[in-house]
Each structure stands twice: as C-alpha cells, then as structure tokens.
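in:
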C-alpha cells in the first residue's frame, strides 16, 4: 500500500482503469471534501494492480476497502493476491438484492456481516410549529460526538465520520444536538443539499428516551430541510425499531441494498 498524497492521484488511478476499456465495476465515488480530509490525515492508501485499483481508508483496527476494476473476475483475482489481505477489511457492495459482486467475494472467503437498505420519502418534508429548533453543534462538542458515534454505532458497517469529517459537518451546520446536565443526550447528523436531505445518524441517550427528544431533533431537521424534495436514510435490515420509526414518518424501503462484507470473523 502507498499513502495517497492528492485528489489528482485518485483521479489518475481511476482513469487508468477506465482507459483499458474492458469494463468497469466500482464501489468508490469521489468526494473531494471527505477524501481530502483523509489524505491530509495520512489515512488513505492505494494498491495498484493491472486491472484493479484498491483504495483503503485506515480506521483504527481495520480498513474500509474500495475498488475500481475492469470486472468481477479481475477484482477477485487481484484481491486474492493482495498483500493487505492479512488486515481486517470491510467492503461495501451496493446494488440490487441479488448481487453478483457480493456473491463472488463470498466465494473467495468474505462473509456477509450486515446488510442495509435505503429508505426514502419523496416530496417536501412536513413542517412543524416550534418555539425554537435544536442547537447546532460547535467545535467544542467534537470529541463528545465522536465518542458517542463510536460507542453506540458500529464502525465496521456504519461508516463513522472521522474527527476531520465531524469538524467539516460542524462548519456546515449539519449536526443538531440536545444537551442536558451539560452533556449531549441526543443528536442528528445529516447532509443537506438544495433538493436532498440525507439523515446519517439519529441518536438519543438510552436514559433520555421516551421524552420526545428524538422527535424534537427530527422536527428541527425537517424544518431546516423544508426546501428538499427527497429525504433519505440507510437502515440496517435487522433494526426493526429504526425501520418502524422511519415508516411512522412516511419513509418507504427502496430496492437498493448495501452489503457489508468482512474478510475475518469478529
């Protein structure tokens, strides 16, 4: 593996595979803001083979693995020879419920750790009468938010933001929080564009549930997202409570799946 030094390097590696004109499969989608943070932190790496490029994001005791390859066969062949396969790897495969790439990776030793599917709501979000909305997180909250996300969510399957990513989200006013006793007891982390709202994390402390804190945060977010026409969230397929909650707010399941595969049992 070689540490990536610039966004241009990523673009050049991707162009190399495209230039072969033998086909293209990928689970990597360039996000200049996010990937620049990874590069600056020295935690983003590349492994090059003739027909497959691997990008690896170091995340504590494991790596998130991304690929751009000419075919499923070239992906599997390169992966079986890769020197980094002794590390714990987490790889996301997006697509339909029946997925050829996922099946091929399972055949060479990966296993399905979790599956998620996307839920969405089409149309302007419902607006709520509120005296005030939830507070925006500040940079002083970053360590506490990072701890909460890593403690109450699964880094292997839910792509917990780095502190650099959290700092960016705070600067863009994309984290709402609720505090009690000077501690964060609820939060929503989201991404907002002109037409779309992507709800990434929605959390309430176990000791503060059933006190309408989750609803307060969600209503605050919907009022902020009033101009959007599509609201989305990924949910773990076995998380019945979360699925029920989103259905209550009018979300429906989409036929887009995210299979999280690991190469080692945990």
């Amino acid at each position: 593996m070689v540490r990536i030094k610039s966004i241009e390097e990523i673009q050049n590696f991707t162009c190399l595979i495209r230039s072969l004109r033998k086909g293209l499969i990928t689970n990597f989608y360039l996000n200049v803001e996010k990937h620049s943070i990874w590069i600056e932190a020295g935690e983003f790496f590349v492994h090059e083979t003739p027909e497959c490029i691997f990008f690896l994001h170091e995340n504590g005791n494991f790596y998130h693995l991304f690929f751009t390859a000419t075919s499923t066969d070239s992906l599997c062949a390169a992966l079986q020879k890769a020197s980094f396969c002794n590390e714990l790897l987490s790889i996301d495969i997006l697509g339909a419920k029946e997925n050829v790439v996922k099946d091929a990776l399972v055949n060479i030793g990966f296993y399905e750790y979790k599956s998620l599917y996307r839920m969405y709501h089409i149309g302007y979000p419902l607006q709520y009468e509120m005296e005030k909305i939830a507070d925006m997180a500040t940079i002083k909250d970053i360590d506490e938010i990072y701890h909460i996300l890593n403690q109450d969510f699964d880094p292997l399957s839910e792509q917990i933001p780095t502190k650099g990513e959290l700092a960016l989200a705070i600067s863009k006013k994309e984290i709402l929080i609720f505090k009690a006793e000077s501690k964060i007891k609820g939060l929503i982390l989201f991404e907002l564009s002109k037409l779309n709202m992507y709800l990434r994390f929605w959390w309430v402390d176990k000791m503060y549930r059933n006190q309408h804190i989750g609803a307060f945060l969600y209503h605050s977010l919907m009022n902020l997202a009033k101009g959007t026409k599509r609201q989305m969230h990924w949910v773990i397929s076995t998380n019945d409570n979360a699925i029920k909650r989103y259905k209550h707010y009018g979300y429906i399941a989409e036929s887009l799946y995210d299979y999280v595969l690991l190469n080692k049992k945990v």
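note: The two ends are 24 Å apart (CA to CA).
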